[in-house]
What we know:
Blueprint: H1 15-31, H2 38-74
Amino acid sequence: MAKTSNSEKAVKPNVFMRIGLFIKQIVDELRKVVTPTAKELFFWSLAVFIFVLLLMALVTGMDFGLVKLVLWVFG
């Protein structure tokens, strides 16, 4: 492997240039964000709510089932 000399290293910009570039990239990404319509927001929220309810039912069922199993094995 060949060693690279100090003159061949990439020169990093100073800290203020890097902060400025970071903020510019944040602004560029925020311009790409699309705000949902009220209808889209309602239906996505409804979908999340239903999904959470289904997961709660699944975890509750597993909890009761495991309690019954433990009581049957050790009880």
